[in-house]
Amino acid sequence: MEKNLRKQILDFNFPRLPEMTQLKYTRMAENAFRFFRGTCHLFYDRLCKMKGIPTSPLVWICGDLHIENFGSYRGENGLIYFDLNDFDEGVLAPAIFEIIRLVTSIFVAFEVYEIAEDQAANLVSIFLGSYSSVLAKGKAVAIDPRTARGIVSNFLKHSERRSYKQLLGKRTVSKGKKILLSLEHEKHAKVEKKLKSALIAHISNWLETSPASPYNYKVKDVVFRIAGTGSLGVKRYLFLLRSTTVKGRYLLLDMKQSFDSSLSPFVETKPRWDTQAERIVSIQQRMQYVSSALLDVTEFEGESYVLGEMQPMEDTFDFSLVAGNYRSLIQVIEDMGALTASSQLRSGGMEGSANIDELRKFGLDFTSWKEQIVYMARELAKQNDNDYKEFLAGYEQGEYKNENSKLKANEKKEKVKL
């Protein structure tokens, strides 16, 4: 018997923190695009029930590709890049999966941003054309401040100008001679005392023993971090690290809990990693041109986490800021198509993924699958809109309020403290 929408959403979010899940539902209720971002599992459930999905080669995909999962970051080589930036749902899957999700996100988001339908359709064609062209050439590209154009160039240059001093000014407070993470920041929450001590001890040990850690730093503070939409509900912590050798130098370290990919029920080939965090980091390293700084994995209290530096130049591209500039939209969508293809070429031939010749052939066969992709994406966008309206009605009637807390209490599961 097929699950109803409410049960699908509650079941998926059941293992996550009840307090944060409530915030996730609130954000999902904002608009259809927020709902789309928070229900990756629903998207693939809908997609895999459709008939006529074009055949495509197996590739490494980030899994949750949409127009706001691209952004800026500083790589481990010290340079800034614009690239895919979210790999929590990463798996080995048909290339079509990644493309359809991105194209669907264009139709969903641009309705929210009130972009004309003909313009949205044209942007879809531009994305698919750019994607297939780069695949057909068989050579991956990278985008940095030297190679970026138009709005992406401005975006990277703006990101490049941000400093750690500015970031720390927003995230920290001075208490006497101490610098601590601010509990007044809207994306910070207090960590219970016992858990805080355990977290500090854990990261202190990581700093001393991991080759990936920065040398000569000590942990000064930790808070619970609130970020994203789809990832709300996972345990996520932000650490303030202070240099023991350079006065006034600090680093911010993000530690994010890892779950199995929401695509897992829909794919057959599942290479094994010891932990979900290793899966995420391995796929990110394969797909990005250069991995972001301080990327590592750790296990804390039996759960796996991804570690990474929180950077002042790390930012997600916000489409709402350019929704009224059609020329800028064309440029950034074209770049996204090139980067999507590049991530697949870069990881080609690894553990079951298609090699470059197979990917080139898929790109050259563009006309054989384009029309079906556009049709399916439109249908999925309509389904998302219907699901959103049903969710919103239930949300406004209180059907999602504290449901996780009630279910966990009924099963006598201990409440996880922040």
Identify the overall geometry: globular
Ends distance: 36 Å
Strand content: 15-25%
Characterize the largest beta sheet: strand count, sense, and whether it forms a barrel. 6 strands, antiparallel
Gyration radius, in Å: 21 Å
Provide the residue-averaged pLDDT. 90
Oligomer: single chain
Number of strands: 13
N to C succession of SSEs: HHHHEEEEHHHHEEEHEEEHEEEHHHH
Low-confidence stretches: 403-417
Number of helices: 14
For the record, the count of structural domains works out to 2
Q: In which range does the helix fraction lie?
A: 40-55%
* Structural class label: alpha+beta
Main-sheet strand order equals 7-8-9-10-12-11
Organism: Pedobacter boryungensis
Protein name: DUF2252 family protein
Pfam families: DUF2252 (PF10009)
Descriptive overview:
The protein is of the alpha+beta class. It is built from 14 helices and 13 strands. The protein has 2 domains: 5-161 and 318-410, no CATH class; 164-275 and 291-310, no CATH class. A hairpin with a 2-residue loop joins β5 (172-175) and β6 (178-181). The protein is globular, with a radius of gyration of 21 Å. It comes from Pedobacter boryungensis. This is DUF2252 family protein.
